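Example record for the data management plan.
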Amino acid sequence: MTKRNINIKASLLALLVAAVSSCNLDRFPDDAINTEESMESLADCKSFLNGLYSGMKYCFSGGFVYVPELQADSFHAVKNFGNFDGDFYSYQVTASNSTAADVWFGVYAYIGNANFLIEGTQKLLSRGTLSEDDAVQVRHIYGEASYIRAHMYLLLAQFFCEDYDPETASGKAGVPIVTKYDPTGDSSKYPARNTLEETYQQIVSDLNVAKEYVLSAGAPNSVYVTADVVEALNARVMLYMHNYDEALKSAKGLIDGGKYPLCSNAGTFADGWKNDNLSETIWQVAMTGPDDIGNSFRYFIYNTSGMIGDDNPQYVPEDWVLNLYDQSRDIRYSSWFSTRNITTPVIGTLTLMVKYPGNPKLYSSVTNYVNQPKVFRISEMYLIAAEAAANKPGGEAVASLYLNTLKVARIKGWNEQEWSGSSLMNEIKEERVRELFCEGHRMNDLKRWHDGFKRSAGQNSSLVMSGDNYAGCSRPADDPYFLWPIPTAEMEANPQMTQNPAYTIN
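Corresponding structural encoding:
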């Protein structure tokens, strides 16, 4: 990246971590290792890795999750909504957008730290001075750092790149691949964008390292990268690459392992989302208390008093989303949505998204709408397996099996069905909305399926923002604005950088 990314001052490099919030990206832990010191021991590696884990809560919460949903067709802005992230919602984003810049620079800073740890572990191992037990642990840390780098590059590809088509990826723009901390003030040496094919090759390469060295067994609600977490990311990456054989293999392995049973009890399911103890969670990023939290989901309720009737939502779910659920039988609907009387910023009855009510352990009195990010759940693996199978010859029965298994757990009294052809793929698409609503998948799903969208009329057309850029917004398949802009600061500083087409000034 530019000097802002790879020529970070030594005193800050060690653990610069990324976070999207309304006005602040960077967080710094108090126990960072000074980069003037090398990795001298296993303890140094552990300390640095702990800092990386501490920062990851910002990469999987808040704007990283809800901004792509606002950009698509998941929510409507209510009238007088304050324009919170309204440029994405109304398709008025420019290259100077602060959220896009926060994500770009923050994730690259995080990649820089992963690079630093990867190099440090390799140098320490190459000395041959570690005991065998310590060497095993350092190699494990090397695998975890490689996993982190892979996941960060995937985030960049999701936000700033097109869908990965195996036949055209070698000619599409990816993101700059930086695998070594090598700061320079010479802008002629700043990296250009690699191809999309090369970007995913780097992701796969790092995942292969993680598969080799991350050997710790997975368990529900793990707060560390385990072998199961690596496999879950591999399933997601393979689906994004349209490698359906490998996607199905990875997802099936996690499902068949039986460690993460689907939840079918409404009370247990709701409690799992509130208290972050859902047994089907493969990995959630740790938050330990009110002083150690990620970013919130305030826009969807925003009740600062905690009193009934004081809700102040800025965005509400679109009616087509609500209508996808069997509202009387689906445990997801009763857990994630609540119909309430609203008095501000509008007056009327609206159904709000309450999927992130706030974990009581993470606030002192009134909820802050912060929950631990559930990066992978076993239900996503069922959906990956279904989509992968549906795209394989003769895979319709297998895809239907995975869909039915998920629905049996979520919908009381579900009668199993068989789907085929276009009806099967349509059911998979709708089930991904039902199961993964506001978890950050919708925009990337539209890109992968090469679908456009048209927003619905809204729960109550008199209470939501009207107009072609708001409730009346429709976007075609492969809309160039589905890709986020490369930040202006990057474009100005890096002569090798190229902008995404929608934001190029003619």
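Summary line stored alongside the record: Strands lie at 75-77, 281-284, 315-317, 337-342, 348-353, 374-377, 453-454, 474-475.
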